Every structure is written in C-alpha cells, then in structure tokens.
Amino acid sequence: MKILKTFILLTMPVCLYAQKVEIKVQDNFVKLSAEQTQSELKPGWTVFDIKLKDKLIHYLSGGHSSQLTDDNMPEFHIIPAENEVLADYAIIRLQNKKYYRKIPKSDIWENDYKRVEPAHFYIKSDGDNGFICHPLEALVKGEYILLNIKQNPIGELKDWNVYPFQVP
Q: Is the pTM of this model over 0.85?
C-alpha cells in the first residue's frame, strides 16, 4: 500500500498554487468564473477558383456578463499559475451585440488590449504569490474580458478561456 501511495504522489503533477482571478465588489473579493469562447468560421469568397481568407469570430454567449463591477476602476486579485507571469494577463474590450458579446479581432495580438503591467496598472503584492491590481485610467462603460494572452488555444477553432466582467 505504501508503494502505491508513493507511486501516485510521484506521478501526479505538482502545482504549488492554482490560478485564481478575483474582482473586488463591495470591499470583498469575488471569484471571477472562467468562460470558454465560442467560435464560428465564416467562409471567405471564391473568385475565379481562388479562395479568399476565411474569417474566424470569437464570442461569448449572452448580452451581458454576470459579474458587474462597482465602478470604472475595478480592482483584481490575480494569482498566476506556476508557469505564468502577471504581464501575461490583459484586458480586452468586447463589442456588445443583442444576444452575444464579440471579441473584435480573431487573433489575440491584433486586438486593442491593456496588459497588466506597471505602465497601465497599479500593482501591489498580496503577501503571498498573488497580486492586487487596478487600472491607472478609468475603463469606459461596457463589457470586458481578462485573459492570459499567452495561453494555448483550445480546439480547432482556437477558443480561449477568459474572465468576463462588466463596467457600469
């Protein structure tokens, strides 16, 4: 039995702390739940047997996020995973439609984003492995996502895990 326990402990991946993203609402930190984007591939035009570029669209279902911030300067508590750094995280503003929220560009790097780094955020340590940060400039009213811009895409259509929130 002791050999079995040792084998299980050696084969399990070691993670010192889990990734956690929280947002401050009414002086308490509330966990932001991660959502996976949904994707749609719109075929391009065919002109003289030449196929033009297909368009990939990433979106989140629902007209609004379930997490509302107190004001336009939300405060986040981010604990990066073992192989991540805080500068890997960024905020992207979404385009709001009636029944869904659309990410403006299909590639993360083409979007207008603000990285969580001292140029755009006030950052302080929480004393452990996490960071408490809030933007230096007020965010415009609308729907946003916080995401790791260096994450590996999921599936054929390259979906992402994101943390949606809404600024009133």
A: no
Q: Which two tokens stand for residue 166?
A: 């809404």
Classify each residue of 134-160 as buried b or exposed e, where b means 16 or more C-beta atoms within 10 Å of its C-beta.
bbeeebeebbbbbbbbeeeeeeeeeeb
CA dist., res. 90 & res. 84, Å (int)? 13
Residues in the chain: 168
Strand 38-42 and strand 55-61: the pairing is antiparallel
Q: For residue range 88-144, what is the model confidence (pLDDT) as tens digits?
A: 999 999 998 888 889 998 888 888 899 999 999 999 998 888 899 999 999 999 999
Give the DSSP H or E segment for 31.
Answer: strand 28-31
Q: Tell me the sheet residues that pair with 46.
A: 51
Report the relative pairing of strands 38-42 and 131-135 from DSSP bridges: unpaired
**Rounded Cα–Cα distance for residues 151 and 130 (Å):** 19
pLDDT tens figures, 23-45: 999 889 999 988 999 888 888 77
Distance of CA 84 to the CA centre of its chain: 13
With tokens 């895990």, the residue in question is 161
